[in-house]
Amino acid sequence: MIQPAELDNLIDTLPDPExxxxxxxxxSDADPRTGRISxxxxxxxxxxxxxxxxxxxxxxxxxDYIQWLSRERTDTKVRSKETLLExxxxxxxxxxxxxxxxxxxxxxxxxxxxxxxxxxxxxxxIAEITEELSNLADVIIEFALRLAKxxxxxxxxxxxxxADRGRSSPAGxxxxxxxxLGSKELNYSSDIDxxxxxxxxxxxxxxxxxxxxxxxxxxxxxxxxxxxxxxGQSGEGAAYRIDMRLRPHGxxxxxxxxxxxxxxxxxNDAREWEQxxxxxxxxxxxxxxLFRKFYSEVEDRIFRPDTDVVRxxxxxxQSKRRIEDPVPPGPGYNVKLxxxxxxxxxxxxxxxxxxxxxxxxxxxxxxxxVSLSRLADRNLIPEKQLTGLFEAYEFLRRTEHLLQMEHGLxxxxxxxxxxELLARRAGFSNPDEFDAETExxxxxVQEVFTSVFADVTxxxxxxxTETPICGSGDLQSTxxxxxxxxxxxxxxxxxxxxxxxxxxPLDADDDLSNIFxxxxxxxxxxxxxxxxxxxxxxxxxxxxxxxxxxxxISIAESKQLQTSLAEASIDxxxxxxxxxIALRYSIDDLPLDVLxxxxLGxxxxxxxxxxxxxxxYPDDPLTESSRVGEIYNRAVxxxxxxxxxxxxxxxxxxxxxRLRPYGNxxxxxxxxxxxxxxxxxxxxxWELLAFVKLRxxxxxxxxxxxxxxxxxxxxxxxxxxxxELKSETLRIRQLLEKQKAARRRxxxxxxxxxxxxxxxxxxRYLQLRDNVPDRVEDxxxxxxxxxxxxxxxxxxxxxxxxxAGYAFLSELDHNIRLTTARSRQIPTSVETQNNIARRMxxxxxxxLLETLNLHRINVRRSFEHVLGS
Length: 869
Description:
By secondary structure, this protein is α/β, with parallel strands linked by helices. It is built from 35 helices and 15 strands. Strands 3, 4, 6, 7 and 8 form a five-stranded mixed sheet that branches. Strands 11, 12, 13, 14 and 15 form a five-stranded mixed sheet that branches. The radius of gyration is 29 Å and the shape is globular.
């Protein structure tokens, strides 16, 4: 048994001691045997908890994994596909009580404990870690194929093709991996890109329960079933996000094609960037001989002996530009797509392979590091550059792994600030050392990238008509291409959405809740419902955006429609939650209500808006009192995952529950009496300010709770001394400005001086001070300012400055969101600035910035009038 002093010493050496201590307390509370865990195993558990809250939660929810990890922790070899397949087979036999997609997701999460532990302890190279992650994905896909095949053969029989001499034989099916999985370089949170190919046309044997169907139908159903098993969402997430957008003809192409069709596409119709993708391809499940036949037919189209080196390099550089142009900048350095990032290393390798691999087959290897080594052996990369690329790849990939394994998200961004914990996890004593190392590696990569493409210009590009790469899908007709270009001239994000939605937009004026409910009820399983919900949501959002781009609706109407869309999405999510809870706990119609804050509370949802919400249930929730917490925790988990979880169909909204009572430390949903009591006795001034905008969105019960809370917070505000209410409001506003806006070089129209938060805080302070609650019929900021002026809470001058300023800032923010899918900052692109200025009827960007500065000055002056001493 480890002693307290030894435990403290052990924890203090970790990069996040507080998380490790919290994990140990929770584990000890849940299992009295914790103190008997050996020091070596406990050290591993605490280390995992200090590096990954995701895996800490996994351990706490599955304490039997501790014993498993204690057995597996000393094995440092890369596990082969065969070994992992045996483990998965045993695991499946012990988890027959859950659906197959949940079982596969659980198996993957368990194996990540072992793999990530080796990773953070540096017991394996980055190549070994990514190889094992790839083997794990191979196994899950292989297992999903076996399950799907068994189900389909029971229903339709065996798919047959006509072989030589007229005899029939079973048709083959192959799963081909592309991208990082294709080169065995998978990340912890990578999507997996797949192709499905079958050997030939024919019919299934008439031995199944549902009769015979064509091979084409059979293999498309097989592909769909596989995707559902390995990528289907449940309340516990999916094993993988499966991306089929790289298949022939993109999102509008069939899920599975015959070998003949696939070869014909890549030889005759595929664009050069699509052929480039095949550099990193391999068979991972099914009939592997099919892949060998396919690749032998297309290899000479990928690696061309007669290629022009300069033109080839130009095409690769253009491919990189196409992939990255639609990606908006993030909150910090992007280790994947940023300058000097992982993508540049990959494109250096692939460009030189394409340029010289046509005449030298030895250079044709899918793995980035192996390819670079071979290029150096042929003196196509100097030894010094090779060393720099290897070191950068190792550093950037390990950093990417640390970022992704914190919460299991597909992220690549190193924050601009507040990354001290990341630096410690990466082995640095402070962020400055970490930043310096990041800069050194990215600079080395940039230098090599620049030298490889130094003599390449756009004039060297292949003379071919290229359909824009739009995230997914293809633009088939001239009319559709023309429409795409017209939309892109105003909004690149909506052009991307337009290209990825082959079924076209839906009219958002109809009864959205019924549209969603009819759609999701057309599917029997949770994953299918989740998928059609997101597909329908994308079509509805596209409809709103296109109507605005065509000037058919105003900004106010756009926000009203987006608010209705968000509310209908919440209704649909609750319907899915209740269905899942009914299956799991035999509880019909679980009572749960949603109350909104922020833009949703103010009925002003805009493009890319978060949903700030709180969840409340009755004091008597019609279920066993001993399981209330467990049931509602699971219900909230499913609800949030439905709206914000990433799948191959995207996500709907970012859901923010942080404004709930006690914030991150509080329950994810609260009983009504607890919720009301919190505002009567505990809520701080900043919470009163936030909850001024509270609005019930799901039922009359939610509306009743809203009314009760509004009464409470306005009564409490009257009891707070005017000076205290003012000083606390000012303090919170200044704190947000310092935290959010001070880090940005550009003007922040939300958090910066004279930004929208100046208007929000001034208005909400006056609402609380003078007891001016929101009106049910119009909760917009402009309506609130009008109420405050009518109430004589605002002088005429301040009313005019704040109203005009907010109207301008809000319109500017909306147009930034529409044109760039971002907010808060005016884009640096002159073309985009001109676009925004035109939409706001302003002559040019210079005048736009001049008007912005004038309004910001006036807004800040009025803010200081209201909240100054």
